[in-house]
Amino acid sequence: MKPSLNTGGLIWITGLSGAGKTTIAKKIINFLNNQAILIDGDEMRKVLDLSSSSYDIDSRKKIAFIYVKMCTMLANQGFLVICSTISMYDDVRKYARENNKYYCEIFLNISEKERRKRDPKKLYEYHNNQIIHNMVGLDYTIELPKSPDIVIEDGLNINDSVDYILKYLEMV
């Protein structure tokens, strides 16, 4: 079943760095007049003081389960939660789907070329210059979502993507 302001639920936005997860999540929340809770992967690392934690596979999975369990707790209390995170593991997304009655998974399937062009945090630039390592999609392979409710591809700009998502969720 689809999440809504009336039922609450979880909107899970996933994709690689630079795909537009946070931008789309914030635009949806703005459209909803701030009546949803945003759980953003980068912000949660700061809040939970995980900035110094490792980016290895086991640490990433542990953190991903913290996010999904927090989102599920809030959604099960009737809040509409939007989570924007790389979410590179099938079992994390499976947990989210199985534990949220009202759930929508959105996969931003944006090409590496487009993500590199955007590169809002300069991660691709830092990776090219060997300043950072262990980057998902370059050093680590992501388990791509197998059955997302919505897939957004390169050709759709951010505003059209938000419109498409809101129409799918029947919020417009």
Annotate the secondary structure layout:
Elements: E1 9-15, H1 21-31, E2 37-40, H2 41-47, H3 57-75, E3 80-84, H4 90-98, E4 103-109, H5 112-118, H6 123-128, E5 150-153, H7 158-168
Parallel strand pairs: 1-3, 1-4, 2-3, 4-5
Helix pairs in contact: 1-7, 3-4
Question: What does this 3D model show about the protein?
Answer:
By secondary structure, the chain is an alpha/beta fold. Helices cover 41% and strands 16% of the residues. It has 7 helices and 5 strands, in the order βαβααβαβααβα. Strands 2-3-1-4-5 form a 5-stranded parallel β-sheet, with helices on both faces. Helix 1 packs across helix 7 and helix 3 runs parallel beside helix 4. The radius of gyration is 15 Å and the shape is globular.
List keywords for this structure.
five-stranded parallel β-sheet, alpha/beta, single chain, 7 helices, 172 residues, Rossmann fold
Largest sheet: 5 strands, parallel
Corresponding CATH superfamily: P-loop containing nucleotide triphosphate hydrolases
Helix coverage percent of residues? 40-55%
User: What is the overall shape?
Assistant: globular
Round the mean pLDDT to the nearest integer and report it: 88
H/E series: EHEHHEHEHHEH
- Here the CATH topology equals Rossmann fold
**Which CATH architecture would you pick?**
3-Layer(aba) Sandwich
The helix-and-strand class reads alpha/beta
CATH top-level class: Alpha Beta
Radius of gyration: 15 Å
Instruction: Quote the beta fraction.
Output: 15-25%
> Ends: how far apart?
17 Å
